[in-house]
Write a structure and sequence with these properties.
- The chain has 108 residues and is mainly alpha-helical.
- The protein has one domain.
- Helices cover 90% and strands 0% of the residues.
- About 5% of the residues have low confidence.
Amino acid sequence: MEEKSRLDKITKEVRAKHFSPNKKNMELTKLSNEELLKKSKELKNGKIINAAIVGFTIGIFCYSAVNNGFGLFTFFPLIITYLVIKNAKNDKILAAEVEKELKVRGLG
């Protein structure tokens, strides 16, 4: 229960900062049931892809650090990892909104 309230709080903060809440909600309500289910599936696939990218870039960082020592190109994969994680947070919020809409429609 605490996790849900924490997620709701983060969602509200990000919405206030980046989105117009009414506009985003309207976009989801305009989607058909099939489109909404497709969006949910795309977000789940995106999580898997993001996890693979993060693992791959951390592996490149470790390999580069062991073989070549620390340098500019050693830390470049970590920058990519940071960007992927930052984008994943926005996807997590969007996934929560899609799940709420699915529950409202009785699909989830």
